[in-house]
Design a protein that fits this description.
It contains 25 helices and 23 strands. With 675 residues, it is an alpha+beta fold. Bound molecules: 2-(butylsulfanyl)adenosine (IVH).
């Protein structure tokens, strides 16, 4: 084939792969009705990635492979909305809703009234602008007039189309330049998962999915946003800054036709009684949705009537939010129990006299940790107020103190041994949480295996959640060393594992044995020991044995290892069950590393890179600084020693000047490294 013709055929192949992937993404992420097994879908994506890698000139920004792209270099830019994003007035009971309906009818004159009832999703609103069917920009609500450009993060949300096929645009009847507004939310499952991960890293939990969604959309690392699985439901369509078309219910249909996710739980109502029925129904549905709602929104369907009704100060008269009553109730604490989570964290849980709150019976509520118990001053026998907020698990808000509710007397103490495995429980100084430090604790087993097998750790592909659950449930893997004693016979007893996948998995496990010591150290799941610390530990000690026998003082000599990390590592290796596990791993894995002496020229110095450097890429400059013992951080603070500024340096440079941090150029950086 002549090369031009060949190029054309590759281009066609790439185009058709993209179409196919988009189609399956839409089925999966928007319609929640996948037709293809995940593995087959992954094959399509891999094939596209392979072709794109061989023909980078054919990569387009709307390719499904391009969701996670570059990060906004200097924070988010402010953008004015095409039309203000207003908020809604609230109604808290039936009477207030009926009053609103009466006012609407009075002001609407002879117009016949139809309402659209929608769920009020508890997230954060966003405006997405499309030009010629391509996503141009995603902007937060901000103060309603001006928001922040968070496009790089919006692109990572799979329910947001990056581009819409011209045929679909045509079929929807919507002009190719339009704006969609809606709510970004974090589903409950994603929220729980993220909080567990944060706890494992010693970070604070997000209080509820709304805060988590709002916080995530403003994270400056699109790859982190992508991991957090945000979802987007659209509820407004605008063309040239005006609502489109004549009926809101048609706008919902049009957005669906364009490929957006529209919440299926909506209803056209012809009077307020139907609206009230929808509310009653929604309250029952609420528990089963898998995401949080805090009420329902009622909108006048006709745009013409909307225009007649107009706005008050900051809210339209043609819509209202009916807010559910806060879900709380009083009950008595019968006991305080302790649960062990995936990360070994011990959580005190109040066992309550069962109480009916917002549609379900509550008999347990979390007390988070010892600090929280002390803050609340709660004792066993107390009466408490329990709230069901955004968290899946209800929580104790306060102790009820009045004459009818006598105080309890029994003080709760954290157990000294893990209630599951009876190993020692520790509370690292300065931290709120108590933890079981035994890696073999069954409660922690699943988590530690998943961590060990993760791509950035031992990279055992195929060892995902469902497999790990089976392995743990059947006792085939009781700790990470057991992974290396799996064989085909054992694997074939599992569900959904055939000859081929068993062989693949064993191949993956075999491959993992070659990985360097730093990965093994990282894989042990020692608290506070991430990828980078593991690398420093491996380079410093050069072997697992040297690391295992290091004292706290010796550990503190390692780059970036402070007292807290040193303490945690020492404690880990002091636990006999952990030592036994590491001994077993010796047979299978690399226990010897390569000692590397990093330069000391920049020891203890922190750098921030900004702008484009003339000769070095960011990664190269970072490596150079790190090899000389320095540290590179992403943001400027008083602790920064040097800001290395290149061309087009932005707000980081301003910040450096403001804080009086020394600013240098590339040449001076090289000088420092050599010194
Ligand atoms: S309509 C002027 N529809 O609730 C129109 N808002 O309290 C205002 N929300 O800022 C928005 N679900 O963040 C609308 N189906 C829905 C909604 C919804 C959630 C949020 C949105 C808005 C807030 C108003």
């Amino acid at each position: 084939m002549p090369s031009a013709a060949k190029d054309k055929s590759i281009e066609r192949k790439i185009d058709s792969l993209r179409e196919e992937i988009r189609h399956h993404e839409h089925l999966y992420y928007v319609l929640d009705a996948p037709e293809l097994p995940d593995a087959d879908f992954d094959l399509l994506v891999q094939e596209l990635k392979r072709l794109e890698a061989a023909h980078p000139e054919l990569i387009t920004p709307d390719s499904p492979t391009q969701r996670v792209g570059g990060k906004p270099r200097e924070g988010f830019v402010k953008v004015e909305h095409s039309r203000p994003m207003l908020s809604l007035d609230n109604a808290y009971n039936e009477q207030e809703l009926r009053d609103w309906d009466r006012r609407v009818r009075e002001l609407a004159g002879s117009d016949k009234i139809e309402y659209v009832c929608e769920l009020k999703l508890d997230g954060m609103s966003l405006a997405l602008t499309y030009e010629q069917g391509h996503l141009l920009r995603g902007v937060t609500r901000g103060d309603g007039s001006v928001g922040e450009d968070v496009t790089s993060n919006v692109r990572t949300m799979r329910s947001v189309p990056l581009s819409i096929a011209p045929a679909a645009v045509k079929k929807s009847g919507v002009p190719a330049d339009f704006e969609v507004r809606g709510e970004v939310i974090m589903p409950l499952a994603a929220f729980e998962r993220m909080n567990e991960d944060r706890e494992a890293q010693g970070l604070a939990r997000f209080a509820n999915p709304r805060n988590a969604a709002a916080g995530t959309i403003r994270v400056l690392e699109p790859n982190i946003v992508a991991e957090r699985r945000l979802d987007f439901y659209s509820y407004f369509l605008l063309v040239k800054g005006k609502y489109y078309p004549e009926k809101h219910s048609d706008a919902l249909k049009a957005m669906q036709a364009l490929g957006f996710k529209v919440n299926p739980n909506h209803l056209i109502a012809t009077d307020i009684d139907q609206v009230l029925k929808f509310i009653a129904k929604s309250e029952q549905m609420r528990e089963k949705l898998g995401y949080e709602i805090d009420g329902i929104v009622v909108k006048v369907n006709s745009m013409r009537t909307q225009d007649r009704l107009g706005f008050t100060g900051k809210a339209p008269r043609w819509a209202i939010a009916y807010k559910y009553a806060a879900r709380s109730g009083n009950t008595q604490v019968e006991d305080i129990l302790v649960q062990v989570g995936r990360t070994g964290k011990l959580t005190p849980v109040a066992a309550l006299k069962p109480v009916f709150i917002g549609g379900t019976t509550v008999s347990r509520a979390t007390l988070h940790n010892m600090d929280e118990i002390e803050r609340l001053g709660v004792k066993i026998g107390d009466w408490v107020m329990v709230e069901r907020g955004g968290d899946v698990i209800p929580k104790v808000v306060k102790v009820v103190e009045d004459k009818e509710h006598p105080r309890g007397h029994k003080t709760f103490h954290m157990p000294e041994r893990c209630p599951v495995c009876h190993s020692h429980v520790v509370r690292v100084e300065g931290e709120a949480d108590h933890r079981c430090i035994n890696v073999n604790c069954p409660a922690k087993l699943r988590e530690s295996i998943l961590h060990f097998a993760a791509r950035s750790v031992m990279n055992i592909e195929g060892m995902g959640e469902s497999l790990v659950n089976q392995l743990a449930d059947r006792g085939l893997v009781k700790n990470i060393a057991d992974i290396y004693e799996l064989d085909k016979d054992k694997l074939l007893t599992l569900e959904r594992i055939g000859e081929k996948s068993a062989e693949n998995l064993l191949g993956e496990i075999e491959q993992s044995r070659k990985l360097p010591l730093e990965r093994v150290i990282f894989g042990l799941g020692i608290r506070f020991v991430g990828e980078r610390t593991a690398e420093f530990l491996s380079e410093h000690f050069g072997s697992m044995d040297a690391l295992m026998s290091a004292s706290v003082e010796e550990l503190e000599e390692v780059n970036e290892v402070g007292p807290r990390i040193a303490e945690s590592i020492h404690e880990f290796f002091a636990e006999p069950s952990n030592r036994k596990l590491v001994e077993r791993l010796r047979k299978f894995l690399n226990f010897k590393g390569v000692k590397k002496v990093r330069g000391t020229a920049l020891a203890g110095k922190t750098f921030v890179l900004t702008g484009t450097l003339p000769n070095y890429s960011r990664d190269a400059a970072k490596k150079m600084i790190e090899d000389a013992g320095g540290k590179v951080s992403g943001s400027v603070s008083k602790k920064t020693d040097y800001v290395v500024a290149g061309e087009d340096a932005g707000s980081k440079l301003d910040k450096a000047r403001e804080l009086g941090v020394k600013v240098i150029d590339e040449e001076q950086m090289v000088e420092l490294v050599k010194s």
